[in-house]
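Could you help me review a protein record that somebody else here produced? What it holds is a sequence and that sequence's fold in token form. I need someone to confirm that the token line plausibly describes how this chain folds. Take the sequence as given and treat only the tokens as open to question. This is what I was given:
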Amino acid sequence: MAFSEDFAGTPPMRATLDAWPGPLVVEFGAPWCGHCRAALPHVRAALADHPGVAHLKIEDGPGRRLGRSYGVKLWPTLVFLRDGVEVARVVRPLSTAPLAEALARIA
């Protein structure tokens, strides 16, 4: 599983992400979010170099607990996990560079 274009229909439970084996990028945002749309090509490009890294897009917003459990306040927020543990975080990326650096830490 590599880059995911669409937001997950049903978000996973936090326990599922905490137990996820290997590298995983969890992207919190919303389909109508301008910042999320602007970051999309950078996320796609960074993940293209890491096809073995799983990517989950989670729609976030009021009443959605998963984003709050990670302390998400701005969109998009990308949380980089390795074996369920947060290793890096990138908020509102304006280029591919910070994403590539975070991916290198979990891949």
